[in-house]
Amino acid sequence: MATEILMPALSPTMEEGTLAKWLVKEGDNVSSGDILAEIETDKATMEFEAVDEGTIGKIIVAEGTEGVKVNSPIAVLLEEGEDASAAEEVSSSGSSGAAEEAAKAAEVPAAPKDQSRLEAETDAPKSNASPDWPEGTEMVSQTVREALRDAMAEEMRRDEDVFLMGEEVAEYQGAYKISQGMLDEFGSKRVIDTPITEHGFTGIGVGAAFGGLKPIVEFMTFNFAMQAIDQIINSAAKTLYMSGGQMGCPMVFRGPNGAAARVAAQHSQDYAAWYASVPGLKVVMPYSAADAKGLMKTAIRDPNPVIFLENEILYGKSFDVPKLDDFIVPFGKAKIWREGADVTLVSWGIGMTYALEAAERLAGDGIEAEVIDLRTLRPVDYDTVLASVMKTNRCVLIEEGFPVASFSDHMASVIMQRAFDYLDAPVVTCTGKDVPMPYAANLEKLALVTTDEVVEAVKQVTYK
Amino acid sequence: MATRKTAAKAKPNVSKEELLQYYRDMLLIRRFEEKAGQLYGMGLIGGFCHLYIGQEAVVVGLEAAAKEGDKRVTSYRDHGHMLACGMDPNGVMAELTGREGGYSKGKGGSMHMFSKEKHFYGGHGIVGAQVPIGAGLAFADKYRGNDNVTFTYFGDGAANQGQVYETYNMAELWDLPVVFVIENNQYAMGTSTKRSTKSPSYWERGAAYGIEGEEVDGMDVLAVKAAGEKAVAHCRAGKGPYILEIKTYRYRGHSMSDPAKYRTRDEVQKMREERDCIEQVRQMLLTGKHASEDDLKAVDKEIKDIVNASADFAKESPEPALEELWTDIYADEIPQEAV
Fold it and tell me: Three-class SS of residue A442?
């Protein structure tokens, strides 16, 4: 059967083009791969090849014609044994089926149902913050460092597929001693020293996770994960979606994040807001040792890629940790550290240090702050924050990272959209300053968020 | 440590059945790609679409050296790899048209398709990113103590990426069972190897890390298969990675909107006429009296029918349901409101 040769789309954005030159004439036999014509697209002049074999029965669009619409017939191809009359029939029979199909494919669909997280709920938000362990549980004092190690070791005992890899995690016992003793217990098959090649070993970790293992990839600090961020975002976070749900990436990326002390700009950045903006990742940033332990165990069991942001200054800090055989903390559940009716302070990670110190000082001035630790930024517990803000009518957010496009900005926007009528003052954010981290001790202090600034912000929103 | 350049010229004994199989497999890829190019021209395939035409012997030869359980991962020029490892042409074509019946439900497109069943791990759009991932897949097999091998394909363009060398270093350090397959088609998009490196023998770079390798004629499916068998045996024996630099040629442009002005039409035409991988097998079949012209015509027809059916399927399969926008972001259920 004679078929029409249609004006091809030869670039992702081409809608029409110029038929610059025919390289065949009527009566020519062509086979697959032969160049039929030169076509000028919006980007370049392209050679247009035959796909099917046959004889050129008729040239419909003459060379030199401009503005030829994509999918309009430009010639007729005859099959073996057909004569030119078949060409006349096809070219006079009107628009081709292919063109109709393409037009149909290009129809703009109706907007999908809005499932935005910002959608107003019919029910008032309720606090999610129930206790993490049963009343009367025996508590032991542990540092964040010990809690993280215990969490990893417990999960590695539980699941053979879990392993730890990173720089200095094995023989050296961890650059920050998080993996102390793990090489002895689990051996070099499961506690693996890598060369200093973040891009490469992160990709290997992602591949191992595609292959069904559950890697824990330690970055000596998250500053160095910048070298590997393509593998984290493009490979780990997006593959489940791109594969239509076939291939997930169950793994944990962990290490210290944010400013340590006097290590200057390249070693002192908080990446919380960066990772929290990426769908497909889960993002955890614990403050206490109990949360470090319970959230790390959840992270290792999670079937998705989890960014676990620790903090060097918190590693040595001690907290009470429940003495339970299998203590886990779910993602997406904030913790209320202190209840209060006058203002809501929201933070996470090391920011909690300033929030709690400020609340203590404010209590001395008769201002009762409710202090919420988000603990995980993706998923994040909006409801606990909103319920609190609806009670206190004021909110201050505390974050170590840069101020522009901070996670605090995002939360302030959610509060504005979902609790606007409850606010008695603008939501205020206290973040790190909009400067690279300076080395000088006095300047570094200025660059970081401080307890004084939090106290000041609370006085501002409470008009005191 | 010994790296060497092996000619792999000694042709293995090859049966009629095998030759016919390679002919069929390579022809399927070529006809499929031509059809994809046609559907692109009709506006049914959008965005990027990188065709594999000319390089068919690489994947078909290497798949002939693979066993069940072996894995493969590649770049964005991936349609040939998927067909060669047995993925369904309908599912691949429907992914190209962005339809529900596609391997990724229409959410991945030409560059991002996967099949757990066929151990095909993508389809990666970022040049070179699949290289450490391939080593990671091999890591998982070694960790589990099986003898599977991962074929990690990348081009001469990716061969200059830093992460490739980080991966070489660790793959050899940890004896990972991975075959690094450099598909050297001589052009990284529009930049010829001559204009991108003064060290154009890519396989030899492995020597710096202690990795053995060789150069292979990628237009000769039997030479590719022989080299593949050698590489796989090396990996299965626990000797670590192996590099195959396969000299090949792509007839089409880098993607659909490439006018290919960086090379002459004569250069392309010469490769097509003198070195074409399918034509070589066709001649072997005919001169060896393994098949008649009519036999091969019947194969051509059979392939054409498969490809036409895949195009029909890809046109008829509906677009994904609008709800699909929100699925497959996480592997577990997260309350929507809390994300």
Answer: helix
- What is the token pair recorded at A3? 């078929």
Q: Report CB contact under 8 Å: B136, A101.
A: no
Tokens of B47: 């965005």
Q: Is the pLDDT of residue A131 over 60?
A: yes
The reply to whether A113 touches chain B by the CB within 8 Å rule is yes
A window 403-462, beta carbon within 8 A of B:
none
pTM of the model: 0.91
End-to-end CA distance of chain B: 52
Q: At what angle do helices B130-144 and A198-210 cross, to 10 degrees?
A: 60
User: Distance (Å) from the C-alpha of residue A327 to the closest C-alpha of chain B?
Assistant: 20
Pairing between strand A376-378 and A282-284?
antiparallel
Alpha carbon of residue A230 to chain centroid? 11
Cis peptide before B318 (omega within 30 of 0): no
ipTM of the complex: 0.94
Domain locations in chain B? 16-338
The CA angle A124-A334-A402, to the nearest 5 degrees, is: 105
Catalytic residues of A: 198, 267
Chain A residues with beta carbon closer than 8 angstroms to that of B319: 105, 109
**What is the second-level CATH architecture of the domain B16-338?**
3-Layer(aba) Sandwich (3.40)
CATH of segment(s) A139-322? 3.40.50.970
**Residue extents of the structural domains in chain A:** 3-100, 139-322, 335-461
Nearest to B201 by CA among B184, B222, B218, B189: B184
CATH label, A335-461, candidates 3.50.50.60, 2.40.30.10, 3.40.50.920, 3.40.50.300: 3.40.50.920
Report CA dihedral (B137, B142, B147, B153) to the nearest 10 degrees. Answer: 30
Q: Which of A7, A68, A232, A242 to mutate to test the interface with B (most CBs of B within 10 A)?
A: A242
* Residues A267-323: tens digit of each pLDDT: 999 999 999 999 999 999 999 999 999 999 999 999 999 999 999 999 999 999 999
Establish whether domains A3-100 and A335-461 are of one fold.
no
